[in-house]
Amino acid sequence: MSWNSVSPDGTKSVKLNRTLLQDNTTYTETTLNNDHYWNIGVDEDGHHKYAQMPKSDIGGVPTDPTLATGMDSVFYSKLVTDVQPFMRNASMIMPLLGIRAMGVFTVNQGTGAVTTNFSHNVSSIILDTAIDGAYIAGFTNAMPSVNYLILGGGIIYNSSFTQPLIFSTQGNTTLGAVKNTTFFKFSTLNKSFALVKPLQAWFVCFGG
């Protein structure tokens, strides 16, 4: 079904215009139901199911749309290292940095076995070369680049509330050995910077 841009058509009879108008009604209902609730029910009608949009590229160059008259903000997608969401208001342009990956895990204090309690885009959390307190987090879907940021923390296995757990990415002379698009390596340490098995630890990865 296609849209009739001239409707009603003054050159056609009322009978023929009924067909044009019905075609447009059917087109409207079909198209709006792609991502809206339209002619569905009292509570649903007029609401979005979801929003889909292409990246705001013109000639292959990522662009930022301007605010329309009377509008306070605009939400759009733009190609950076991959397609990412942005928002613009009257004073700034902000990337909506979603969480690329995250994980929460516990460690058996006897065996050192890792149990993943919750994760997003994390294929595994395992010991690094079987060393307690040193871990590797693998991604289910690869990061767009190595330039994502990592935040982490945890709870130390210790009854004293003054004992912290230090979350740290591992050191190396080559970035790709400890942080790349498919995994990153990290350690959990006590205040003396000795490797320890956490009671529970977690991390989130942003950007990239």
* Widest β-sheet, arrangement of strands: 7-6-13-10
Q: Percent of residues in beta strands?
A: 35-45%
**Tally of structural domains:** 3
Radius of gyration: 27 Å
What does the oligomeric state look like here? single chain
Which structural class fits the helix and strand makeup?
mainly beta
The biggest beta sheet reads: 4 strands, antiparallel
Name the poorly predicted regions: none
The pLDDT mean sits at: 92
The number of helical segments is 2
Distance N terminus to C terminus?
A: 42 Å
Residue share in helix: 10-25%
Number of strands: 13
Large-scale geometry: elongated
Summarize the structure.
The chain is mainly beta and 208 residues long.
Describe the 3D structure.
The chain is elongated, with a radius of gyration of 27 Å. 11% of the residues lie in helices and 40% in strands. The strands form 4 sheets. It has a 4-stranded antiparallel beta sheet with strand order 7-6-13-10, with no helix packed on it. A 4-stranded antiparallel beta sheet has the order 8-9-12-11, with no helix packed on it. It has a 3-stranded antiparallel beta sheet with strand order 3-4-5, with no helix packed on it. The protein has 2 helices and 13 strands. It folds into 3 domains: 1-52, no CATH class; 57-95, no CATH class; 99-207. Strand 4 (83-89) and strand 5 (93-95) form a beta hairpin. By secondary structure, the protein is mainly β. The mean pLDDT is 92.
